[in-house]
Every structure is written in structure tokens, then in C-alpha cells.
Protein: Interleukin-17F-like
Amino acid sequence: MDMKQVLIFGLFLVPVWTCNMTRMHRCYDEHELSEAAERKLRTHYLQPPESSPAAAEDSPVSCPVALYGQQQPQALSDRSLSPWRYILRTKPDHFPSTYTEAQCLCAGCILIQDKKPPVESHDYNSVPIEQSRVFLKRELCCDGKKYHLKPVTVKVTVGCACAVPPQIRTSS
Structure:
């Protein structure tokens, strides 16, 4: 066999090989898929408890400086010097398909000093805190009719923290 024949033979084997590799995963009908995903998430990929969205995604995002000092909020997201809100995210081809994600409300951090009114200080940054979560992604099987579930890792923002901004180095 010459090199050209080997390459042509190899090109015909790649689709067969990749199709056989996905056969290692069970393929599910559309109506079986959701139940299989829930079972796998419950037994193999435990999910953190979901936070309830405090605001609609289309509501204005602003730093709630004026609210500090008026009341004693209970939620950590409202007491933080880098407050956040939860919004709903949807990924139709993933399980779970809907989840909550934190969104920072301030660019800086809220400072409360002495008896002065709270202010947003840009000497500090509000930065997202990310957590890696496992989702099951729905992918088409080789038959083109059924699906298999592939675990994928997605970074999800779970809160915000106040941090000193990165220092810009200058040469001396």
C-alpha cells in the first residue's frame, strides 16, 4: 500500500472510529433524556443548591450605595461591600438547562467610614467569584436520532468580592 492509499483508508476510518467512540456513551430518545440527566446529576454530579433570583435580568444594574445604613438586610449578597444580584441563565442543550448566576452591582466597593454616608470607592474593585460546575451537555449520537450526555465544566459566577486592583508596574 502506498502513502496515498493509506491516507484515503484512514479518512474513511475516522468517522467510523469517532462514531464507535461515542457508542461508549448510552444514547437516549428525546423523551428519556431528561430523566437520564436528572438521574446522572443526582448520582454522579451533585449540584449546589440554587439561589433565587432577586431581580429580573432586564432590571437596571446599579450600585445600591443609598440602601446601606437604612436597613439590616439578611442576605449576604445585600450585606457585602461588593453586592450582587442573581440572574437566571439558560442553556437549552445542557442539564440543568436553567441556573442562577451572580452579577456584580458595583464597579468599586462600598465604603462605610465613621458616621459618613456610604460611598462607592474605586480604590477597590468588585470582582466576580467563579466556581466550576459540571453540567451534562446533550449531543447527537451517530444515528442522528438519539442523544448522549457529555459532562462539561462551566465556570459560574457565585458571588462578588472586594479586592485591591492589580498594580500597574512601572519601570524605574
